[in-house]
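Suppose you are handed a protein chain with no further information: no name, no annotation, nothing but its sequence. What can you learn? This example shows the usual starting point.
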Amino acid sequence: MNGPGWDGRQAQFQESGAPNWAAPPGQHAQYQQTPPGRPGPPQPFVSNAMQPQQPQPQQRPPTGQQQQQQQQQASRAKLSQRKSTVQNLTRKQTNSGIIVANRTLDEETEDGRIRNREASTKIRDAWIYRQIRARSDEFTQYKQGRVFIGTWNVNAKGKDEDLSSWLCADWQTHGPPDVVVAGFQEMVDLNAVNVAVENKSQQRSQFWVDRIAATLNSRQNTLGDPMRTYVQLEAKYLVGLLVVVFVKAPHRSRVKYVHSNSVGVGVMGVMGNKGGVSVRLQFYDSTLCFICTHLAAHRENVAGRNADFANVYSKTSFDIGAEAVQEVIRLGSMSQWATGASSVGVSDHDQVFWFGDLNYRVDESIPTERVLELSKRNVLDELIEHDQLNIERAQGRVFQGFDEGALTFQPTYKYQPGTDLYEERPDKKLRAPAWCDRILWMAQEPGHVAQLNYTRSEVNFSDHKPVMSTFLVTIKDVILEQREHVYREVMKLLDMYENNSLPMVSLDRINLNFGEVRYDQRVTLPIVITNTGQVVAQFRLVPKGDDTDLCKPWLAVSPTYGMLIPGERMEIELTITIDNVTANKLNTSREVLDDVLILRLENGRDYYLSVSGTYARSCFGMSVEELVLYTDPIREVPLDPIERAEKYDLNTKAAMCVPKELWRIIDAIYEHGLDERDLFSGTSGDPDEVYQIRECLDTGAAFEDFSVHSMAEVLTSFLSNLSSPIVPAGLFPNMEIDAQNIQMFTRKFLEDMQPIPYNVFIYVISFFREVLTHRQMNRLSPAKIARILCSCLVSNSQSSVEESANSSNQRRGNMQQLFLHFLETNSI
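A reasonable first move is to predict its three-dimensional structure. Written in structure tokens, the prediction is:
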């Protein structure tokens, strides 16, 4: 069948001589032609060579147009019945139906409503699946291939017997299959040692895998053509159970998500003497699952077999990964939805094949001797009517949703090993022959699986006869571009309705640029948030990642949360404030005025608010050691350390003894304000003048006729807000100061000071000594100035935990005595 993405592959298969999917050997691929824009339904391939293998009574499935019409008529009712029965086994359930999600995940809101996110996600995925599945014909082209299923209880025997009469018996009739699956039971003795430690299972499983590979890829079958060879996909064993899957080499590149599983249901309900092994895969764009089981034995133990089936069915799951699950959903291939984020169960596949020694017998109402007689005479109707599996399936107690072909061959158990005779030897227990070995299938689309034959092989070294069946299967090949188009349309429709039920807001802006921001300045910008949806909108600011704060320390937001009814609007104010700590970090390139805030809409999306600004550099919050390096106004000194290093040689000596800013402010007070009444005490400066004076210091502009009190406030603020205090805590006197030792302390104090802080200290003390010469006018006293200096020049860092408050106060008191001494002594 032609279609986008397939023409090249078809040509490649033909050029390389690959066998047709559903044609006898020697014929090339003849796919149905369908217009590329609209893939059509498949039609089974019909060949003149497709004849019964042997002239014995066997009900064969119809072929061609007749088969297609019958399948279409039955598919709807059958699929509905299957889904209702199979779903009872696929998930955790109650008598009334499926439990979608665990109640422990329920979340109760303040108004009493219950929300379960897991349930919401699963229900949403199920809705998406149904929409895509309903439109699958829009993006799917169908191909037909053949799957061979074989099952055999080998009774722990087998050496070099020829397996071709089992694996390849119908190749001349139906052609080599595209997928070959073989299941084994009792490949080792099911004794206690083997069940407990599986010491021979790996060796025997590899023996059978090698035997199958050698048979499939024999010279007789491949004719030397590598495109006719088979590649092993997976093998899974559990004690005596083995399932192995081969695929024809040309198809290997179209197989993915191959996973296997095993479930033990034997001794104590968990051991591997009974149970199942399974393999699932994606073949082109259809998902296939193969399950080989060995169920409970003994003629009377029907309930045990039913329970084993249910146990294997419910416990078989495949962790294929979240990405694969989503792809399966988008392919429209899941019968329900995944059990978790990354797992699928048996029913989550397009086609399931279940086979093995199911151990169902002929009902005990028919005596063993009569069962033997009818079996040997090949008179099967009465036995089929009383077959336990047929009875249990008809009553809906087991294999719900599965199909099985007509039993047209003699019972496959129990034979004398090495013969074609049923076991009747006197020294052996007499057992009623039975169809223990069976092959069943289930398909989401019943018309996509047609059984071509269902028979047995006459290989006789075991007490069971091997059983085999070939199926004509319809496989999906998705046109990705058209599938994505359908998926986008479905999601667009879903988004439209979901958005109507979700809160929605609009923000008048999400990028806030505060421009130039100055020291000790508060700048506020608003954001207007409006509820544009149809439901109440609740919002809040949340921290980023692992942060505990909503924003950086220099930014404040108010309010940080709120609620809006539809149409309501509110202002959120964002304020930047540059304090001493922030200024210090900005000056040393440890901070920038950039931040991102997250505004979260409850049950909605997140909005990211970008905040930025430019710091207008100031001498406030810097250290005197750095200030003395520059003769230029500090506003002109770049914040970026690389640009600063390119403009200034920072390895040279200091350009000045004290910062120029300190000299300018002290000089202005010295020239105009030493006689000002209540200087440095009692009278505050004008805020506007204080701001302008700081600007003059930072930009180098000349002072205007400012108030002396404003100048004095700027001086104390400048000294108090240095990043490093003039007098660090390490210079505090650590013992009581008195008249006898004060001279020693002052000398020690000056000797321990660093050069630039020393210059500033002497300069400031000298200035205030001059201020005191005008004390009659400004009414300052040495004690008052000592207190002012102690608050401006001394470190305000917190005392250590061990240091008591009294000890800290005493040390600061000692500093005031030192300052008082420096102010009153005749010489420093």
